[in-house]
Design a protein that fits this description.
single chain; alpha/beta; 5-stranded mixed β-sheet; 4-stranded mixed β-sheet; 9 helices; 9 strands
Length: 252
C-alpha cells in the first residue's frame, strides 16, 4: 500500500516520470485517490497493453489539472461496478461517476479522452462555457446556484473563493456555476435573469426541472445570505418570490 507521502507525490503529477500512471492496488488506495481531488480519472484496465492505456497516459499529460491513475485489480473494479476495461471519471460536486467503456467506444484516441475529461470536469464551482455546459446540464443535479460576476472586477476573485468554499455544503443538491458577464456568449444567460453586465455581481438560482429562476435580492453577497437562499429553495420557500418561467426549456 502507498505511504501517505509517496501517495501525495504520485498526485503531484498526472503521470509518473517513467511515463506510466500511478497504480491503485487495493480498495483503500482507490478510495483515497478519489477523495484526493474534486475530479479524478481512473483507468480500470488490465495492463499497459490494454486499449486505452497509452491514450490515457497521453491525456494525463495534457489535462494536468485532473489526477489520473490505473487499477488492474478486479476486486477494486467490483467496488465501482466495473466489469470490463473502463475509463472512469469521478467528481465530487454531484457525487457522479462517468464511465467510458472501452469496448463500446467507436474510436478511442487521446483527443477523445481529453474531450471526455474536459466535458465532464464539473467542480464545486465551475465556470460556465460551451464546453462545461455539457457536463453541467447532463448532471442529475438540476438546481444551479449561479454567480454572475465580471472577471477583473474587484469583487470577482473574492466572491469566487467564497462560493467555492460554500459549495461542498450542497453537494448533490446544487451545482455552483460562475458566469462571466463580460463574455458575449453569456449574454443570453444574463438576459434570462433580466441582468446586464453593469448590474453585476448578482446571485441567482436556476431549476432545470421546472425551468424556473430566482434572484437573490440586492445586497451583500455574503456566505450567510447565499446559504439561506439555497436552503430556502430546498425547503420550497422561494415560490412566492419566483420570477416567471421562460417559455419552453431553456439552456442558459
Amino acid at each position: 500500500m502507498l505511504s501517505g507521502l509517496f501517495f501525495l507525490v504520485l498526485l503531484a503529477s498526472p503521470a509518473m516520470a517513467d511515463g506510466t500512471l500511478p497504480r491503485l492496488n487495493d480498495g483503500k488506495a482507490a478510495q483515497g485517490f478519489i477523495d484526493s481531488a474534486e475530479v479524478v480519472v481512473i483507468g480500470f484496465l488490465q495492463g499497459e497493453e490494454s486499449l486505452g492505456y497509452k491514450e490515457l497516459v497521453a491525456a494525463a499529460k495534457r489535462v494536468d489539472t485532473v489526477p489520473m491513475a490505473i487499477s488492474d485489480v478486479k476486486e477494486v473494479w467490483a467496488d465501482y461496478g466495473i466489469k470490463s476495461d473502463t475509463i472512469t471519471l469521478f467528481r465530487k460536486a454531484d457525487n457522479h461517476q462517468e464511465n467510458l467503456v472501452v469496448a463500446e467506444a467507436k474510436k478511442l484516441e487521446t483527443d477523445g479522452l481529453v474531450n471526455f475529461v474536459v466535458v465532464n470536469e464539473v467542480r464545486y464551482l465551475t465556470e460556465y462555457s460551451q464546453v462545461t455546459a455539457v457536463g453541467i446540464f447532463n448532471s442529475e443535479v438540476k438546481a444551479h446556484l449561479l454567480l454572475f460576476a465580471n472577471r477583473g472586477s474587484k469583487e470577482h476573485q473574492e466572491l469566487k473563493e467564497r462560493l467555492a468554499a460554500l459549495a461542498p455544503e450542497f453537494t448533490g443538491k446544487f451545482l455552483f456555476v460562475l458566469i462571466n458577464g463580460e463574455v458575449t456568449s453569456n449574454s443570453r444567460s444574463l438576459q434570462y435573469f433580466g441582468l446586464r453586465p453593469k448590474d453585476l455581481p448578482r446571485v441567482g438560482i436556476y431549476d432545470g426541472d421546472s425551468d424556473m429562476k430566482w434572484l437573490l435580492p440586492q445586497g451583500p453577497i455574503s456566505t450567510e445570505r447565499v446559504r439561506e437562499f439555497c436552503t430556502s429553495f430546498l425547503r420550497g420557500e422561494l415560490k412566492d418570490v419566483q420570477q416567471s418561467a421562460a417559455e419552453g426549456k431553456t439552456e442558459l
